[in-house]
Input
Amino acid sequence: MKIVIIDDAQLNVTLLQHLVRKLPDCESVSFTDPEAGLAWCLANDLDLLVVDYMMPQLSGTELVERFRAVPAYAEIPVLMVTANHETEVRHHALQVGVSDFLNKPLDNTEFIARARNMLALRHSQKQLANRAEWLAEEVKKATQTMVERERETIICLSKAAEYRDPETGLHIVRMAHYSQLIGAKLGLSEAEQTILLEAAPMHDIGKVGTPDMILLKPGKLDEVEFAVMKRHATNGYEILSRSQSPLLKVAAEIAYAHHEKFDGSGYPRGLAGEAIPLFGRIVAVADVFDALTSERPYKRAWTVEDAQKFLISNSGTHFDPQCVNAFLAVWDQVITVKNQFADQG
Output
């Protein structure tokens, strides 16, 4: 362990160095210049500071006060050597952070005993810090495991909706990545982009409650059938919002809002403008673009150019103009995602 000695008298320094050598597994660093000693302390790790009280230019209490001003050194033991027995002086020294005192002339046995006790305290502090660091790492690992399991659950639930839907399996992958691209361009944080990427695939989970005769109908739905189909947004919200998971709560918000339209003509609540949650506005653009450019049993895939024109012509009515502009601004990345996750066959 490292002991720093600061005393303007070389004779005292020599004596203290000699005593430190009697302590097991310890080494000393010594200074007769208090400013130089303090500078070294603030730039290095140490386990015990032994400082003289009466020094020119910088007194022991002033040195300790500046030393303690750095949060990282708040717990390092400080032993002050002094010939001053005034109670007021000692009280002030304790207030600025001195841990204990030794009187001059030094009693060798007393110094070794007090230094050993302080080093034992420092050793315990280090062990506790290491234990806390280990626990924090274990909590991090456990949390990561829970997050991975949560992601697996989301993928499974998303797949469950896909198996009942004529849409292709990679639709949810593409639209999720499109959503992330829009979010990034809009200035969302990395954490917000990640949760959007992971929650977006759940947007149509409510379709698990839609009858096959409606969900799988190859032609256009009539008014009654469409009313039933529209319930999937509310169903998805009710399924997901019961969870305490922050990720699933975001997914619930997306499921509820991605069929709302910017002009208020969407469903299920008829929200308009910024009353529609931002993630819902983002996913609306990503979802419709991928649906248009994907082949379905009842339609051919649109070209990306035609889908782009559709987004532009419906900007401000169906879609949030900011989301459309953000999507178009990253067009090269959009095409990369489309090609990377292209449907096979």
The longest strand covers residues 2-6. The beta strands are 2-6, 27-31, 48-52, 78-82, 100-103. The two ends are 68 Å apart (CA to CA).
